[in-house]
Amino acid sequence: MQGTFRPGSSTTMYHCVYETTIQCTSGVIFPAMLHAYSPFNDVVLCNNTVAFVSTKVCMPATTPHDPMLLEGICVVAVPGDPASNSYESGIPDFPHPMVMGLGLVVSPMRTLADGTSKVFDIISSDYVQD
Questions:
Q1: Is the pTM of this model over 0.70?
Q2: Which residues pair with 36 in a beta bridge?
């Protein structure tokens, strides 16, 4: 658990940072770092825990060599003991990651080093509805 604060503020925000991966339907696996805000002294997820996560994503141009950066909005761990042989049998089948965003495509599509994955640059910003 790490704490950060803004200069001039007495409020500290706590978060956990997890090393994880994102697996595409093609079988390609990308490294990622999940940054999840958390209350002070909250329980950290155990190694090999599966979680359903909604995030903001930053994908550096150097991916897959450098990890994607994920800012957790909602993190829900699958209950159970990740060390148990039966843990994965209780996980719902959810084979396709979902990406939702609103933005403007500003580059042509290019193929990543894996030879399969296609990417392009998008300019987007946070959107808050009144």
A1: no
A2: 16, 72
Burial of 120 (0-12, 13-18, 19+ CB in 10 A): exposed
Q: Which residues contact 90 (CB under 8 A, 6 or more apart)?
A: 78, 79, 80
CA–CA distance, 68 with 123 (Å, rounded to integer): 17
Count each helix (H run) and each strand (E run) in the chain, helices first: 0, 9
pLDDT digits (tens, 9 = 90+) for 89-107: 878 777 666 667 778 889 9
70, containing H or E segment: strand 68-77
Selection from 18-22, 61-65, 94-98 with the highest mean pLDDT: 18-22
Q: And the tokens for 90?
A: 């209780």
What's the token pair of residue 43? Answer: 């329980």
Quote the CA–CA distance of 18 and 32 in Å, as a whole number: 8
